Amino acid sequence: MSDKHIVSGFDRDLASIEASVAQLGSMARDALHDAVQACILRDTQIAARVQAGDKALDQLETQTRMATIKLLALRAPSAVDLRFVLAVLEICAHLERCGDYAKNIAKRSLALGPHGQLIGTDRALLRMSDAVTQMLADALAAFLDRDTDKARAVIEADLDTDQRYNSLFRGLLTYMMEDPRNITAGMHLHFVAKNLERIGDRATGIAEQVVYHVTGEIPDQERPREDPYTSPDGRMNGQN
Amino acid sequence: MSDKHIVSGFDRDLASIEASVAQLGSMARDALHDAVQACILRDTQIAARVQAGDKALDQLETQTRMATIKLLALRAPSAVDLRFVLAVLEICAHLERCGDYAKNIAKRSLALGPHGQLIGTDRALLRMSDAVTQMLADALAAFLDRDTDKARAVIEADLDTDQRYNSLFRGLLTYMMEDPRNITAGMHLHFVAKNLERIGDRATGIAEQVVYHVTGEIPDQERPREDPYTSPDGRMNGQN
């Protein structure tokens, strides 16, 4: 067997793992989209579909992780290929957790069913969901294109998601303080918002791995963020 | 250089990484202890110490991660040594996040300052904090002793943490519904409880890596847990 043969087998393995990561990313985005729809429409059928879909995502994640570890064990890759392997393991874990958050959001729609809607909250949740979906899409595109500029833009965008979350949190707090009958719905919707914010964190984590893969550097862990406890006017933020 | 020489250098590297992981675990436990004290005593000095300490934890985590990746690149370990390396990378990430959660709890104590105490909540938070501290200690001991029985006990214990969290969540909800003036303190304390619950999840993640390191199998991801949205009497849980 020639060296060339070995190398091209290695390249095939890398390409196959990369395709699995792309598919995982696509599954996570679909799950997120459906979960938020289920939540806003109080649609239990969509919610059930998201919950069932998470099993498939978990399975593909396990397969991809196993294939990646096998590659690591058999090929002992070095330099950029080793960073690829390490980045893929982290990215897989992030996407698996995104699927879990989507599942949590979908389940929450079942609990929300009987509770009234809080004016304006649905629209704010949809906007936040669109923003984190875009972050996920961009982080995956950055991974596939080895595009560190795009990755850094995702890391920057997380500040915006945190602000959206804080604004939603304060809105919910106001509803709850105005009328205790809003507390239950407010707490449920707060969990939905928190899960969206955590998907934003995961997209950021993926983007950081893209920078690591391409450059060997991990971006500064102290990401730009709003002051996590009080906004400039002294009101409480939910950021955590 | 003889094979023996190479092997003992390798063993030294492994031992050094293991010692760093033990130290990270100890730092995370101290941070957690201090953070909960800061929160209950509303002590801003302890809170500041936790925040400063998190920088040291992050630095050691980065150093340990780098040393582990270097070992992976230079020694191309296989079988149980490869699993050790992969487990260490995951465990480091879990401990770094535990430090972040402790920092969040400490910061929350600053926001709690002016708000009244909710009867019984401090004691429940302390009990929950003791439980997750024990989980962290046991998970680290299981790692150092390669003790899968102890690791599996940690995974089981997470169910208990989830129940404590749910009980605390319902208690806070009751206070908030009784009197809207409790809402702000209730929301802050809920974040503290949520961070403790997430430290429990991280201890569980460490325990899963111990099982992986020793056996090559990842324990079933579908951990035992309470039904996440309603308890048997139909009340809402905060579990997410």
Automatic annotation (TrEMBL), chains A, B:
Entry annotated with the keyword NADP: no
The keyword Iron is annotated on this UniProt entry: no
Role this protein plays: Plays a role in the regulation of phosphate uptake.
Annotated segments matching region Disordered: 216-240
Domain PhoU positions: 22-108, 125-210
Subcellular location: Cytoplasm
Assembly behavior: Homodimer.
Entry protein name: Phosphate-specific transport system accessory protein PhoU
Family classification: Belongs to the PhoU family.
Main location (coarse class): cytoplasm
Gene3D superfamilies: Phosphate transport system protein phou homolog 2, domain 2
Keyword vocabulary terms for this entry: Cytoplasm, Phosphate transport, Transport
PANTHER family the record matches: PHOSPHATE-SPECIFIC TRANSPORT SYSTEM ACCESSORY PROTEIN PHOU
Gene, per the UniProt record: phoU
UniProt source species: Roseibaca calidilacus
Cellular component terms (Gene Ontology): cytoplasm
GO annotation terms (biological process): intracellular phosphate ion homeostasis; negative regulation of phosphate metabolic process; phosphate ion transport
